[in-house]
Design brief:
Oligomer: single chain
Structural class: alpha/beta
Helix content: 10-25%
Number of strands: 26
Bound molecules: coenzyme A
Strand order of the largest sheet: 5-8-11-14-17-20-25-26-22-23
Distance between the termini: 36 Å
Radius of gyration: 20 Å
Length: about 280
């Protein structure tokens, strides 16, 4: 088995070739297994800051190039057609993941830690990393390369977008102990700091300004940095007036959706979002 360092150089050189050689598939499968085992990640925290592992994203893209369309049927009724390089994972008891019956799917190349609970239907895409004690609720999406920390609750229908390209773009990152409320959408590399709470229906993208009522600041993404939700922030969906003098704004009196930090997490928030231990 190759070391991560060897895998990295093999993937980088294969990504650079127009016509991958015959053993490219073997290298890719080794790479995909390391991803599934959580030994390599699309992004990780180094000295307190998140860094993208560009080569890991290149490896995933290589898998799409190498893959061939295949029928992946399971019995008479369920039938899927996809690239053969990214089949669904077969979860076994030894994985210690609770995969509740009802139509969920975890792709090969996604790491899901022991003790994670997956409520149906949910989908965890390739390159995603879901750490211990997290709960992925019904109709939730963990998009490609998204990094989900420990004890995160991704509530029903919460969507965590995938970021595959460009390869140097940071994926969506949800740090430890975050609650993402029902129907939230977190996209385009947004970073949600530890213990933050997104009230249901909050949408965050690179273009969304985030208004902090407590600290009196407005957070925005920049070319180098994604939108970042501060640790412990409680964010709810709000609205703001359209800037005066902008087109028809004065006449129409419209407002635009905007997320607002209404407070920082306190005991009331904790008691409101507490989950029963025995449910785990
Ligand atoms: C954010 C949330 C956790 C509330 O946190 P909290 O700390 O108890 O918040 P508070 O009740 O102290 O509210 C603080 C302020 O925000 C407002 N607020 C709270 N939640 C809000 C929401 N979802 N939308 C708009 N405003 C909200 C409150 O009215 C209050 O403002 P006010 O003082 O002007 O009245 C809760 O609203 C929420 O969305 N929980 C997630 C529910 C969910 O999706 N569960 C999924 C289970 S599958």
């Amino acid at each position: 088995m190759s070391s991560n360092h060897q895998l990295k150089s093999a993937i980088e050189s294969l990504s650079a070739t127009k016509t991958p050689p015959a053993d490219a598939r073997r290298v890719f499968l080794e790479f995909r297994s390391a991803l599934t085992r959580g030994e390599i990640r699309a992004a990780q925290k180094v000295n307190g800051a998140w860094a993208v592992n560009t080569w890991v994203k290149q490896g995933i893209l290589l898998g799409f190039r190498l893959g061939e369309m295949k029928e992946m049927s399971d019995g008479e009724v369920l039938n899927f057609v996809d690239k053969d390089t990214f089949p669904a994972r077969r979860v076994v008891l030894a994985d210690r993941i609770r995969l509740v019956p009802g139509g969920s799917s975890i792709r090969e190349g996604a790491y899901v830690a022991p003790s994670v609970i997956c409520m149906p239907p949910m989908f965890i895409n390739v390159g995603a990393y879901v750490d211990e004690g997290s709960m992925i609720d019904s109709h939730a999406l963990v998009g490609s390369c998204a990094q989900i920390g420990k004890r995160v609750h991704l509530s029903a229908a919460a969507q965590v977008g995938g970021v595959l390209e460009p390869v140097n773009a940071t994926p969506v990152i949800i740090e430890d102990d975050v609650l993402i409320g029902g129907n939230c959408g977190v996209y385009e590399g947004t970073l949600v700091g530890a213990r933050a709470v997104l009230g249901s229906g909050t949408i965050l993208t690179r273009s969304t300004p985030l208004y902090d009522l407590v600290r009196g600041e407005i957070y925005r993404s920049s070319a180098e940095h994604p939108l970042t939700v501060p640790e412990n922030a409680v964010v709810v969906p709000g609205s703001r007036a359209v800037k005066k003098g902008k087109g028809k704004s004065d006449e129409w009196n419209l407002s635009l959706y905007t997320p607002v930090i209404v407070k920082y997490r306190d005991e009331k928030t904790d008691s409101g979002i507490e989950l029963e231990d025995w449910l785990r």
